[in-house]
Amino acid sequence: xxxxxxxxxxxxxxxxxxxxxxxxxxxxxxxxxxxxxxxxxxxxxxxxxxxxxxxxxxxxxxxxxxxxxxxxxxxxxxxxxxxxxxxxxxxxxxxxxxxxxxxxxxxxxxxxxxxxxxxxxxxxxxxxxxxxxxxxxxxxxxxxxxxxxxxxxxxxxxxxxxxxxxxxxxxxxxxxxxxxxxxxxxxxxxxxxxxxxxxxxxxxxxxxxxxxxxxxxxxxxxxxxxxxxxxxxxxxxxxxxxxxxxxxxxxxxxxxxxxxxxxxxxxxxxxxxxxxxxxxxxxxxxxxxxxxxxxxxxxxxxxxxxxxxxxxxxxxxxxxxxxxxxxxxxxxxxxxxxxxxxxxxxxxxxxxxxxxxxxxxxxxxxxxxxxxxxxxxxxxxxxxxxxxxxxxxxxxxxxxxxxxxxxxxxxxxxxxxxxxxxxxxxxxxxxxxxxxxxxxxxxxxxxxxxxxxxxxxxxxxxxxxxxxxxxxxxxxxxxxxxxxxxxxxxxxxxxxxxxxxxxxxxxxxxxxxxxxxxxxxxxxxxx
Length: 527
Fold this sequence. Notes:
Number of strands: 4
Number of helices: 28
Radius of gyration: 24 Å
Oligomer: single chain
């Protein structure tokens, strides 16, 4: 059984990692326990007796877990869900280190500006104070208890949290279930030409975000549930998905509850900033990710990826149908509360945070994990403020200019000290581009969204006229032309940004850019 014995195997199931006194985690090994038979439930009671402790370094702890997964003598005794659960525990152990993140205030906080001696010795309380108070970093050294993490995680698995069937799905007719299972299949969700309006043809308008969110973030378990309800199973080539239920212990009932509450706070009366738009942005980001970010994605933690997808779905929650120009000129409560600084985006982020808490979606996460998810989600939502667009494009373009013209070799880059901040910025950039992706889609869909956007803009312009306020750009129905506005939007905003993205994700260059140029030519012909 290689270098492992059953005692060490048992140690994975009941362990505590403490970073309270030191940033070097320790691994506590419990009493000898028998290997779990195939298909048995991984519960805390299976490893409750502890008679000895031995301390391993973080690196040794990870090696122990990897040995379990790599050793046929052990791995063959595990069910697929148990193997996935142990693999996720490796991620949890890897995350048991000082949590150092920019405070989620929307500013471009970077650890590179903090004196190196401060960052090199964060075991010193004085340095923690300096880094957090004057450098804007959130540094945590609280205890991480893997015993409770594993207990919560395994409880989710044993309670079949991933087999939950949303009532929004149950209420569909067999015909619509069959049609929607094809639309929300793993293969179809990856398509750049995915049509969100196809979902609307099958379900109630108030359930689109719930079902799309469940299908994407709950994949592949959500697809398995859909097919099982139809008496079918997923084809082998259809396997894949994010597996957050096994890697993070995400409970699908809570996930759906979060999306249900989220969707309820999107106004179905808005022509553009609706739950349909939110679902479309989530799917577009998912498509970008599946296009093959490769080594860049490998540098992103599972928690961070989870946060990015949540941010895409929540980025416009509570949108009133009027933009920041209106909020500031009218001195609305939002503008006053947020001091005219990205009032809408700050409100979206705040509402998303409240919904995370009320849905208990992160309840089984450690404090550090929940903080990371919320912080990354907030940062991503704040970067969707359109006034940051040109600065964002310039910054990302500068980053990739350090590489040759053939694209970015992320394999080497992600192992550098500067990679964490840059990867974070790139994924935030991707969410922003998903938010302005309408002109990158098939022409019929691009035209639909363009008309929806202008209809909402014109309604704002009418309100501004009524209140004797300055009329915001593109909001005057008497002086705005659809074709001209789309031509300039694509020419100066969308196309240059996606050309930059194409250097990060090569498939964007071959699949998306041609469609953008085709739509640009169409609108030019209409001017």
